[in-house]
Specification:
Blueprint: H1 2-5, H2 9-32, E1 42-43, E2 49-50, H3 71-106, H4 111-119, H5 127-139, H6 150-181, H7 184-191, H8 196-232, E3 240-241, E4 252-253, H9 258-264, H10 275-325
Antiparallel strand pairs: 1-2, 3-4
Helix pairs in contact: 2-3, 2-10, 3-6, 3-8, 5-6, 5-8, 6-8, 8-9, 8-10, 9-10
Length: 340
C-alpha cells in the first residue's frame, strides 16, 4: 500500500506539504522557542522612518502586521495546531459517525427513520453557533486569566467540535449503507443465509470504502470551517488572549492557528492592508488542496487494488473455462462393452 501511494504524485505533493509545515513548526517551537521577529520601523531611501505594516516581499517574505510582527513566524507557529487539530477533529468525528451510521444503515426503518428525522434538524442549525455557546466560557480569557491549561482547552474544543460534526456524517453513512444493502446481490446473499458481519465484510466495506475516505476529508474541511467561523467571532483555537483596561489591544490567539489568524485580521478587510487576511487564508487553501491530493492518491490506489482483484478473478475463471474446454483422450474412460 505504501509503495503504491509513493507512486501517486497528488499524494506525494499533499503529504509533502503537510510534513514540511509540521517539521518547520516543530523546529521553530523546539529550537527557537516560537520566537517571532518584530520590525517596529524602517528607514526608507530618503532616510525617513516608515512604520508597519509592511506588505509581503517589502521587508519580509509574508509581510508584517500593524505591530511589525513577521507573519512567517506566526504561520510556522500555528501550522502544527492547524494541521493536527483539524485532522484530530476529522478523525474523531468520522470514527463516531462510522460507529453510529453503519448499525443505523442496517436497521434503516421504523425507529431509525425517526432518529434520522430528529437528527436532520441539526442541518438547519450551524455547528459554529452551538460551538460558540459551548466554548466561549472555556476559551475567552477573563480578567483573572485563563484558569485551565492549553492542553485541556485544546482537548475539550476538539471533542466538542467533533461531536457537533457527527450527526450529518452518521446520517450520510447510514444512507450509503442502506442503499448498498438494498442491491440485488446483497438480497440474494441474505436469502442464502448471510449474516450481518458477512454482509458488512464482503459486500458493504468493499463498495463503501471510497465514500468513507471522502467523508473523512469532508469532516476535516468542516472542522476548518467551524474553526474559521469561531475565529471571526474572536474565539480562537486554544484560547483568546484578552487585554482589559485603557489602551488595551484587540483580542489575539494563543496558538496562532491559521483559521484564528483569519479571524484576528478579519477587520483589516475594510482597510488598505487586506492582504493581512490573505496570508493565512492562502495557507488554509493550500492545506485543503493538500488534503484533497492525499485523498485522491488513496482513492486511486483503492481503485487499482479493486481492478487487480477483478483481473485475478477474471483470469482464474478464464483459466478454469479454458481447462474445461480442452478435453483430451485421457479425460475419457472406456466403458466395458460400450460398443454393443
Amino acid at each position: 500500500m505504501i509503495k503504491k501511494l509513493g507512486k501517486q504524485p497528488s499524494f506525494l505533493l499533499g503529504i509533502g506539504f503537510l510534513l514540511l509545515m509540521l517539521a518547520g513548526s516543530f523546529v521553530h517551537a523546539i529550537f527557537f522557542d516560537s520566537y517571532v521577529l518584530k520590525t517596529p520601523f524602517l528607514y526608507n531611501d530618503e532616510n525617513k522612518i516608515v512604520g508597519p505594516p509592511f506588505a509581503p516581499f517589502e521587508h519580509s517574505i509574508l509581510g508584517t502586521d500593524m505591530n511589525g510582527n513577521h507573519l512567517i513566524y506566526y504561520i510556522l507557529q500555528g501550522a502544527k495546531f492547524t494541521i493536527l487539530g483539524s485532522l484530530s477533529i476529522g478523525l474523531i468525528s468520522f470514527s463516531l459517525a462510522f460507529l453510529i451510521g453503519i448499525p443505523l444503515g442496517f436497521r434503516y426503518k421504523g425507529k431509525s427513520k425517526i432518529v434520522e428525522n430528529t437528527v436532520s434538524a441539526l442541518y438547519f442549525i450551524p455547528a459554529s453557533l452551538i460551538a460558540y455557546n459551548f466554548l466561549r466560557p472555556l476559551l475567552w480569557e477573563p480578567m483573572s486569566g485563563l484558569p485551565t491549561s492549553l492542553a485541556f482547552r485544546l482537548g475539550v474544543e476538539v471533542l466538542v467540535i467533533s461531536i457537533l460534526l457527527v450527526p450529518p456524517a452518521a446520517i450520510l453513512i447510514a444512507n450509503e449503507t442502506s442503499v448498498i444493502l438494498k442491491r440485488e446481490y446483497v438480497t440474494t446473499s441474505k436469502v442464502l443465509g448471510a449474516g450481518p458481519y458477512h454482509l458488512y465484510r464482503r459486500h458493504l466495506i468493499p463498495h463503501i470504502k471510497e465514500n468513507l475516505v471522502t467523508i473523512f476529508m469532508r469532516q476535516t474541511i468542516q472542522a476548518i470551517l467551524v474553526m474559521s467561523h469561531l475565529g471571526v467571532f474572536e474565539l480562537f483555537f486554544g484560547g483568546t488572549n484578552v487585554e482589559y483596561g485603557l489602551g488595551a489591544g484587540p483580542p489575539t490567539p494563543i496558538t496562532f492557528e491559521w483559521a484564528s489568524m483569519v479571524g484576528m485580521y478579519y477587520d483589516t478587510l475594510q482597510t488598505n492592508v487586506h492582504w493581512l487576511v490573505g496570508v493565512p487564508l492562502i495557507f488554509l487553501v493550500l492545506f485543503v488542496i493538500a488534503l484533497m491530493g492525499i485523498i485522491r492518491g488513496v482513492k486511486n490506489v483503492m481503485k487499482l487494488d479493486d481492478r487487480n482483484v477483478y483481473l485475478k478473478k477474471k483470469r482464474r475463471v478464464e483459466g478454469t473455462e479454458r481447462h474445461s474446454a480442452k478435453l483430451e483422450t485421457t479425460d475419457f474412460t472406456m466403458v466395458k462393452d460400450s460398443s454393443k
